[in-house]
Amino acid sequence: MLHAKLDSGDTALVSELLRSRKAGHTLPAQLYTSEAAYQADCDAIFSRHWIAVGVDCDVEEPGDVIAVDIGTSSILILRDDEMNIRAFHNVCSHRGARLVPPGRSVVGKLVCPYHQWTYDLDGALALAPHMGLDFERDLHHLKPVALQSVGGILYACLSDDPPEDISDLINIVGERLKPYDLQNAKIAHETETIEDGNWKLTMENNRECYHCASNHPELSLSFHSADFGFDPEGLSPSERAEAETLANAYAEKALVWEGAGLDHAPIEHTVGFPTNFRTQRLIIAGLGESHTMSTRAASTIPLGQMTMPGAGDLHLWGINSWNHVMNDHAVIFTAMPISADKTLVRTKWLVHKDAVEGEDYDLETLTAVWNATNKEDAHLVAIAHQGVSSQGYRPGPYSRYTERALDEFASWYVERMTANGYGA
Ligand code: 3BY
Ligand code: FES
Ligand code: FE
Fold first, then answer.
1. Residue 112 CA: which ligand 2 atom is closest?
2. Which ligand ends up closest to the CA of 94?
3. Where do the Rieske domain residues begin and end (predicted)?
4. Is there an atom of ligand 2 within 6 Å of 98 CB?
5. Is the ipTM above a cut-off of 0.90?
6. What are the strands of the beta sheet with 125-127, ordered from one edge?
7. Over 50: is that where the pLDDT of 1 sits?
């Protein structure tokens, strides 16, 4: 069944737009700008795929709850008394009111603010005043949402029939994340940025570093732009020399990582896979330790069982997320669509749970690079959205050399929309 907010005209429009996408090019304008495409994305992508929603340490203790809006839906994630992490629709079983407000709460039980229906942390309805002695409370359990922790990063799927290939993400990325023990890390800092652009522009912007040298002076200190999807054939002689130097440095580092049992190879699941992701251990420039202005570690206590400052940047992209996991800290990003032209980007900086601010890390040092980069990226997404909303826009060509991942993301998007009832 398609989304209730879309009539057949809207569905036909979205389908026509998807069919008209030219390979190797950005999407037709209205796939970024129209209300119909936004509603179709909420339905086909955000309600039927595994979406990154947070981290295990968002809910450290029993009774910790976070509410996360996923497109037009809202879920709550909590830690129960047995230390399990559970997710439910943030919808009361009585008359549907939002159970918990946006952000973080700490609860003994979940009490609906409307008429005080009260739920245990396993979702069971414990109390429903004035519903009569014969009222069958068992039938009014909170509706569960599928939730998976992948090495300490939480993914939720709103569908009753979630894509099974989440097991690949767990096996591949969960394994790579194991030594970082992110489940037991702590959130040192968190920001929310509303980008004035469609969520697909946020994700496209993130999947290339074509824009990095001229827009990210801070990130460029530690981040090598010449990596994913980079084909030296398209380069000028000087760029090619630079790429070769980097390839040699990577090969050297790769041997060290292999010696330490740290996987590094790029693994990509794009077109043909419902659960889109890419992972690779990347080298860090400069002194090679972390995404800081000095390129040195920001925290003196390494994450989990990590012991190698030069372990690089375990990089992970997903449908709505990007992550940088380093020896001393991790930066976890999620992007959630709020409307056709607004996207909420949440950034969480994770450190070892015993690390103390002011002693083991300095917050400014920890957050400076990505705070600056987020601001710069928000501006780029805003100007891109202004452009696609203008009369003069026509789909433009992606670079074969530096934007291959964007072309694949657009192709994956068209494929997933089509598989879920649009575009055929
Ligand atoms: O953070 C990321 O994953 C991407 C990759 C290159 C630049 N960037 C913001
Ligand atoms: Fe929740 Fe009435 S809507 S108790
Ligand atoms: Fe950027």
1. 1
2. 2
3. 50-156
4. no
5. yes
6. 110-111, 118-119, 125-127
7. no
Our answer on whether the CB atom of 115 is closer than 6 Å to any ligand 2 atom is: yes
In whole angstroms, what is the distance from residue 97 CA to residue 99 CA?
6
| Whole-angstrom distance, CA of residue 71 vs CA of residue 330 | 26
User: Which ligand has the shortest distance to the CA of 208?
Assistant: 1
Pick from 362, 356, 372, 261: nearest CA to 307: 261
117 lines ligand 2 (CB under 6 A): yes
Q: Which of 108-117, 229-238, 292-301, 412-421 has the lowest mean pLDDT?
A: 229-238
Show the beta-strand stretches assigned E in 60-111.
Answer: 64-70, 73-79, 85-89, 103-106, 110-111
Q: 0.90 cut: is pTM over it?
A: yes
Q: How confident is the model at residue 232 (pLDDT cuts 50, 70, 90)?
A: low
Which pLDDT score, from 0 to 100, does residue 238 have?
81
Ligand 1 atom closest to Cα of 323? 3
Q: Residue range 322-333: average pLDDT?
A: 98
Domains and CATH numbers, the chain: 58-162 (2.102.10.10), 179-419 (3.90.380.10)
pLDDT above 70 (res 120): yes
User: Measuring CA to CA, which residue among 22, 42, 26, 24 is closest to residue 422?
Assistant: 42
**Shortest-distance ligand to the CA of residue 99:** 2
Ligand 2 atom 4: residue of nearest CA:
115
